[in-house]
Amino acid sequence: MYLNKAIIIGNLTRDPELKALPSGTKVCTFAVATNSVYKDKEGVKQEKVEFHNIVAFARTGELVGQYLKKGQQVLVEGRIQTRSWDDKDGKKNYRTEIVADNVQFGSKPAGSSAGAASSAPAGKNDDKAPKDAPAGGEAIQYPSEEINPDDIPF
What we know:
This protein is mostly beta strands. The protein contains one helix and six strands, in the order ββββαββ.
């Protein structure tokens, strides 16, 4: 059995471009940057950035084109594909890209507009509510007596 699977997490380097094929199928192209940090021979920390070309078709492509913007974090699952074509001078060109099967939206870039759609459900990231407050807005009543660890049955 053979496997062609790519999973990357990174940031969009540009806004996605949404187009339609002659058949009417939507196709969205965008690029994602990933990085790796390592120490060189002298022990100095180095960072290497890779840029990945992504293609998403149909409904996935429409959603990417509608909601993702430059700088936003994204997880892309798909397969690696290399296309080739001849330009007008007869030179053969190649492009390796990831054909997205699944795209999960991540955090938005700093300074993005509040009116843009969020990948998180509404009400889940309410920073104004205390972390221990229930969803209904009523306060949790804790017992006033001390709990003895020996009384815990496990």
